[in-house]
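Figure 6 in text form: structure in, sequence out.
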């Protein structure tokens, strides 16, 4: 296993753990406003998951200009979205590694 695989596995593990421990939270708790980060736990998860799509598109030469509005998805819905987006991101990252392109600059 190389460094990229280790980092990808850690990223996926950490996000799954966060979603798992948040599974028992109510909607009110997920949407409780904090004066930090993206304001709520749900909004922070939405942002973290969206970042995988953003970076994958950027590495493919596309640009997404704005984050979508918070959807109010359940933890299960967030997890499904994470799994789908993370898999695409990880596949692309491994492809770039295999092509020797990890040092490319993505603008």
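Output sequence:
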């Amino acid at each position: 296993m190389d460094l990229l695989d280790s980092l990808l596995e850690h990223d996926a593990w950490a996000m799954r753990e966060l979603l798992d421990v948040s599974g028992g939270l109510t909607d009110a708790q997920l949407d409780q406003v904090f004066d930090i980060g993206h304001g709520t736990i749900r909004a922070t998860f939405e942002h973290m998951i969206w970042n995988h799509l953003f970076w994958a598109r950027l590495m493919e030469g596309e640009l997404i200009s704005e984050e979508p509005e918070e959807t109010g998805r359940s933890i299960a819905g967030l997890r499904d979205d994470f799994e789908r987006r993370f898999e695409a991101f990880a596949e692309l990252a491994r492809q770039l590694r295999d092509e020797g392109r990890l040092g490319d600059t993505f603008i």
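Caption detail: The chain has a mean pLDDT of 90.
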